[in-house]
Design a protein that fits this description.
alpha/beta; Rossmann fold; Tyrosyl-Transfer RNA Synthetase; Structural Genomics Hypothetical 15.5 Kd Protein In mrcA-pckA Intergenic Region, Chain A; 3 domains; six-stranded mixed sheet; five-stranded mixed sheet; about 45% helix; protein biosynthesis
Amino acid sequence: MTAYKSDLLRLLDARGYIHQTTDAPALDALASQAIVPGYIGFDATAPSLHVGNLVSIMLLRRLQQAGHKPVVVMGGGTTRIGDPTGKDEVRKMLTDDTIEANILSIRTAFEKFLTFGDGPTDAVMVNNHDWLGQLGYIELLQQVGTHFTINRMLTFDSVKLRLEREQPMTFLEFNYMILQGYDFRHLSKTMGVRLQMGGSDQWGNIINGMELARRMDGAEVFGLTTPLITKADGSKMGKSVSGAIWLNRDQLPDYDYWQFWRNTDDRDVGRFLRLFTDLPIDEIQRLESLGGSEINVAKIALANAATELCRGAEAAILAAETARKTFEEGASGGDLPSFDASGEISVIDALVALNFVTSKKEARRMIQGGGARVDGDAVTDEDAVIPTQAGPVKISAGKKKHGLINFV
């Protein structure tokens, strides 16, 4: 590890957040002497962010823990365009009302990780539509457009990949990097923001914003990116077999969130403990050194700590107890995901309703493969129906997914 002087960069380095920085010595010196306002932008394309966004949220949390000021920028403006980075398709346009509702919903997750308020290191949330929406098109072209060359923009991965794959990129999307760059310039000028952070795929966009702030205002600002966070099997964070791992409870039950972390690959446990929990480094070193079946102790510690941060201590305790009862005692824990049925329901429909599969076709394959069980008994008939009964019925998909059907 590099011998940083500031608490901020020492903390980020120790826990594995740093991939690239611009002028690290100058940023280190600044963070040693003053409160550094730093921001990350999030587009509001859904009512909840997912685990794939969590490293960025934790980065803002670390910024605050080190005595600096997190600025959460919600993309009320840029969501109307769509970030082409890593995308092969044009983003669907959302209505203004949907975007505003998504921002309100997303804020509830940030309130679990950050302390908001009016103090010097309290987090603030701003909406870039407040300033981007005020820009006239001619004004934007005159003031900002002159600082971007088409030659440079065509070298960006977000553009090159689309063109190489012969996928369309609209002129609207092509403007995204200009508006994101303007965000950094605006925040630097109006709020004194000195640092933009993000995933490694945002490096080019961050550099754009830095250069724009320097050219238009002579500002000295900095950029920092995190490594691309993938799981040991190469898959992206934020996704599971059954879909996205949403941060908001109304998008994903607490138990499913806990179970996602409990199912972490052995090779990822230490890294994820550093990135996604507040456990001390010495405790993490102890946990990651566990071998054999004892690694499950570390996985449960990860699940408990990550769930407590996102969903609260009670949710973590209930999920852990539900898992213990389900796997150790064969019982049906009360915190399992559940679905209310008004009458008899087919096993296929039950599997779909509990989000254990994404389609009836997948449910049939699961039954054919012997992976579906009702109250512990294997289901072999694809047309099997669960009759109406007084108590809940436990549905299992494989060894790790369990849920309840309640008849109402």
